[in-house]
Amino acid sequence: xxxxxxxxxxxxxxxxxxxxxxxxxxxxxxxxxxxxxxxxxxxxxxxxxxxxxxxxxxxxxxxxxxxxxxxxxxxxxxxxxxxxxxxxxxxxxxxxxxxxxxxxxxxxxxxxxxxxxxxxxxxxxxxxxxxxxxxxxxxxxxxxxxxxxxxxxxxxxxxxxxxxxxxxxxxxxxxxxxxxxxxxxxxxxxxxxxxxxxxxxxxxxxxxxxxxxxxxxxxxxxxxxxxxxxxxxxxxxxxxxxxxxxxxxxxxxxxxxxxxxxxxxxxxxxxxxxxxxxxxxxxxxxxxxxxxxxxxxxxxxxxxxxxxxxxxxxxxxxxxxxxxxxxxxxxxxxxxxxxxxxxxxxxxxxxxxxxxxxxxxxxxxxxxxxxxxxxxxxxxxxxxxxxxxxxxxxxxxxxxxxxxxxxxxxxxxxxxxxxxxxxxxxxxxxxxxxxxxxxx
Length: 440
Fold this sequence. Notes:
- By secondary structure, the protein is of the alpha/beta class.
- It folds into three domains: 4-258, 3-Layer(aba) Sandwich (Rossmann fold), CATH 3.40.50.620; 263-382, no CATH class; 396-440, no CATH class.
- It is 45% helix and 13% strand.
- The chain contains 16 helices and 13 strands.
- The chain has helices at residues 39-57, 73-81, 88-105, 121-133, 162-168, 206-218, 232-247, 278-284, 287-295, 307-324, 337-347, 352-361, 363-368, 370-382, 400-414, 418-430; strands at residues 4-7, 12-15, 24-28, 62-66, 137-140, 143-146, 183-188, 202-204, 222-228, 252-258, 261-263, 266-267, 303-305.
- It has a four-stranded parallel sheet with strand order 4-3-9-10. A four-stranded antiparallel sheet has the order 5-6-7-8. Strands 12-11-13 form a three-stranded mixed sheet, with helices on one face.
- α9 (287-295) crosses α10 (307-324) and α15 runs antiparallel to α16.
- The chain is globular, with a radius of gyration of 26 Å.
């Protein structure tokens, strides 16, 4: 019953060596709540929810920490647009609550804790002071930078050489830095939203925040650190640098990252204008269909998203509901070769597509073997996090305008004016109505 994941740091599949007598320390980078969460966020947190559920099923307890970056320039800018930059906490809380509601609807378990940046600024200052004392950071004017040349293994997570690290870094424009790849730990600002520090008023850099929140939650070393692949560099690379430079000990034993969601063969990004929010998805499909859509893909494989794929996903999910959602009126038979194979698929790098393949292959058996059907149902609900509740059918409101178009189309069909009937059907489709003609 060993669970294996692809460890980004080791660049290979590794069995998790964990102690069931001690809670598993799992840290997943959370959201920066300045806007609606998008479908990429949904994939990240459904992926790690599956990991938590599988660990729980296999007898582990999990201390699951998912931070909230409630201090960020974009949050402050949005508050300023509303009239007062000091209201950034209000903005962050508003979008966090929308995110939390979306996670609940997707069936994600609540983390054990959700630390916030604004609650640990003093600890961030102390952490930075330790890096300066240890020769790993330096002050330039009122800013503080991490010296990447002070850490011989910098780049160990991403596998980039020094030139690639410099080229790919989110480099702050300061030509006085010792190395172009050095990154900010503390950024001075004359704006109203700032904190006092030994280097003057300012705000923490992005990367230092997670190092401190992780230390507050777990101490020096955690078991698993995760997030999307976009965080490997520079964010997670820099977390390792800061934490291991200060403590001289391993920051995280395992690193796990899920792949991107692409739209029109491009990585989804707000900057590219191709971002799809969870809210948009949930107005079109039940959240359980969306969760099932994510889990139909192994977490390390990119998803090429289009709304049309959700229709096929919904059809498949309805099939699962129809055959496994009912009460099978028998105790679950967990000691079964197929059930073991399903769990082994999940334990092998969360291979949820293989799990579902086995579930669909065994539908005929589930019809005649209630104990087996009940066992699959329990796995679908408890480990995959699918409710298996019947989907709510959409109720279309027929307005006078729509009724007129329907009547016109019916008359066209009676008159065998198929061109006009098709034209009216297209008009109804454009207004969001699907037309299914009765056979004569």
